[in-house]
Structure formats: C-alpha cells, structure tokens
Amino acid sequence: IKIKITKVDIPVAFASAFEGEIIRRKDMRVEFDGSRVDCVELVQTKTMDEVEDHKITVVGPEIDTFEPGSKHSLAYLVEVAGKKMQPDFEPVIERKFHNYINCIEGVYHTGQRDMFRIRISNEAYEAGFRAKHFGEVLYTQVKNEFEAVVDKCQVTIFTDPAECTRMRHEVGIPTFDKRDARLETLTDESVDVYYSCILCQAFSPSHVCVVTPERLGLCGAVSWLDAKATNELDPNGPCQVITKERPIDENLGSYEDVDEAVQKFSQGALEHVTLYSIMQDPMTSCGCFECICGIEPFSNGVVIANREYAGMTPLGMTFSEMASMTGGGVQTPGFMGHGKHFISSKKFMKAEGGIERIVWMPKELKDTVAERLNKTAKELYGIDNFTDMIGDETVATDPEVLVAFLTEHNHPALSMDPMM
Ligand code: SF4
Ligand code: ZN
To answer: Where in the chain is the domain with CATH 3.30.1650.10?
Structure first.
C-alpha cells in the first residue's frame, strides 16, 4: 500500500505561493551558483535493493559553517527505484526540482542540471532551514508526484566542494551528454508530432515552448524525448502533443497546428510562432534560457551570449542586459532565448540562413559547442573549422573590431543578405 504524504517536514512553509519569490543579495544567507562553482542536480534509477526509502544524507558541512552572504558548491543526487521506473523519466523528474525548491518559503532556484542557482534567505535560515531540508522536500515531492513510477527514493546532498566537483564532472556531465546523444539521430522531419511545454508559466504566464527533436526547450533541460516522457507520465500535464499536419511555410517552420497550440496554451496572448526564425514571429522566452542570440547589424550576423558569461558583447550589452529585453514571455524579433544545444542544430535560425550567421560567442561557449558546430557547418556548407571564423571576447567586444576580424577570416555572414 502506498501512503500519500501531504505535508513536507521542514521548518518553513511550502506552497506554490512562494514560487515567484525573489531573494535579493542583501536578504540572502547563502548562495549556491553553478555558473561560478561546481553544482549539479541529478536523478538516477537504481534497483529496489539499492535504495533505502526516505534515507537522507548530507555529505559535507551544514550551512551553519558558511560565512553569511557567501557562495558555495551544492550537488544533490536523488536515487529512485520502482518496477515501472524508466531512465527516460529521470530528466523529467529532475526538471521538477526547480519548481519544488522554489515552493520553499525563503528559497529561490533558477536554472537546471549543472547550471542552477539557489539562494537561502536570512529568514529561512533563522527559522532553521538547512541543506538536509532540500532532501526532505525532494523526497516528499518526488514520492507524491511520481508515485506511479517511484516506489522508493533516497536523497544525498553534497556540500563538500571536492564531492560536488566529482559529482558534476564524473557523474552529472557524462549523464547529460549521454542523454543529448540519444537525440542526435532524430530530426524534425522524422517525427509525427512536436510537444508544447508550459512549465515556466509560473514566472512567464504567456510563455510556451514548442519542443522539437532539433530544437530543445530554451532552458536546455527539456528535449523532445523529455517532453514525450512528460506527456506519457502525465497526459494532462505541462507537455501536450502538437500535431504537424498543416504546414504553412516549411522554411520558417510555421504550421497551423503549432499556431493553434500556442494560442490555446498562451490563453490567446500569442497568435503565430515560427520554429526556425528569429525575425518573424520568433518563439517567446521565459527567464531561464541558457543563451540569448541577438542581431548584430554591422556584420549581418548574430551574437550569442550564455548565462555564465559576465562580460560585454559587441552589441554593447551584457547577458543580463540582453536578458532584460528578451524575457517575460513576449516575442522580441531579433532577439531570442535558446538552449546551448540548439547552437549546432541545422534548424538554428534556418529561415535567416542558419548557423552561418553566428559571428560572435564567448570563448568558453565556443569551446563547448565547437565540435558539434563545426560538424554541422561542414555538413551544411562544406566549411572547415567554422568556429575559427567566429569572434569572441579575446578578439573583440567592439563591433568595428569584430567586423575587421570577420573580414580577415572571410566569414560567410558578411556576404549574406541583411536581416533587417
Ligand atoms: Fe519547459 Fe520551456 Fe520552461 Fe524549459 S524553458 S521548462 S521547455 S517551458
Ligand atoms: Zn523558463
């Protein structure tokens, strides 16, 4: 017999009313920040005898020992077992952590995978909230919400920095890479349906992601396979099937079916959305995009900035400044939030000419996507080592210097049609 747990045993309140709560720097006791130190959140499927139900372990110091206002590593591993559990469901459970942790009064969470950020407020800390309580929240919510597939659940919280580094690099990243590789064989043309995702409507009420095999959700955490699993786990849940039987324009990636779906799921706020254009009816952005691309008029190209990059871009804006004009569930032609993985997709702004338009990226991002992006450029345009033609902050953060660099490297965007 399964017992449904209704109360979460933590010293602060737990309710969806706290989901949109923001904790300012001056009000925070401690911060965990995956863009600066090693953090990771992960679900793993185990056999029944490998999991001790409701076991919660903290590996490393409790937050009492942290300096007020300081930044730390954090990793949490949720191990689940159940007869009907499938590894395909792991990322779906993981993606709910954002929502669970945000429901804690005085705790704030953004991002996912190894790029999340959590803040604990002074008030929550003073009420007695500690790292072990993350375990309590995750255990209770996973058991509640995934009772159809999870029979046993145990949670390990790592605060020890060396353990967080090991968890991130040896466990988390290889798992994420393996999941991403499974998608590689699928194309938008090879599937019969796409999926909607409205998980982010708590923050951005009119935001709808349309998830396709070649275009994952802008958070980077919801692939087409994840959306499919979400729909299987919860047919009335955040991911719904979108048929693609009535194409309007294949190059733009516009469909009557997609338009109808976004109209419905945005409660009428959106009318038309294209899958492959950043200029014409681009998809909306919530707040959790991994990257933003924005039009760079001097080079006919686009600049991409990722969340981890704190410096300046050739647009004269930082990532946060670009984010402030892109988010909130509205359409902003010329600017678009997207997942990192989308950068090497054959569908990346295909309507405007595709990845050939990319003229600048932070060096670290460029290095991360280089292998896949170069492969796509070779396949689509026969270009070798395309990333060598793309500028970064070590080359230029000024548009004129960038254009000189692009000219010297014979970047294809310079001879393409203007985007505006
Ligand atoms: Fe879903 Fe999109 Fe939010 Fe990701 S960003 S959780 S795909 S709505
Ligand atoms: Zn979001």
So the answer is: 16-178
- Specify the fold of 193-415: 3.40.1470
| Residues 251-292 pLDDT 10s | 999 999 999 999 999 999 999 999 999 999 999 999 899 999
Check if 197 has its Cβ closer than 6 Å to any atom of ligand 1: yes
Contact indicator for 14, 53 with CB cutoff of 8 Å: no
pLDDT confidence of residue 1: 44
Burial category of 11 from C-beta neighbours within 10 Å (exposed 0-12, middle 13-18, buried 19 and up): middle
CATH topology of domain 16-178: 3.30.1650
Q: Which ligand is nearest to the CA of 283?
A: 1
**Measured CA distances, 376 to 64, 342, 385 (Å):** 49, 11, 10
CA of 219 to the centre of ligand 1 (A): 6
User: In which residue ranges of the chain is pLDDT below 70?
Assistant: 1-6
Nearest CA to ligand 1 atom 6: 199
Alpha-carbon separation of residue 164 from 75, 169, 399 (angstroms): 5, 9, 39
How high is the pLDDT of residue 327? 80
Residues flanking ion ligand 2, Cβ below 5 Å: 200, 286, 288
- pLDDT tens track for 154-175: 999 999 999 999 999 999 999 9
Structure ipTM: 0.99
Residue 175 CA to residue 190 CA, distance in Å, equals 25
Strands 74-81, 39-45: parallel, antiparallel or unpaired by DSSP?
parallel
Read off φ and ψ for residue 230, nearest 5 degrees.
-60, -45
Write out the residue limits of the CATH 3.40.1470.10 domain(s) in the chain.
193-415
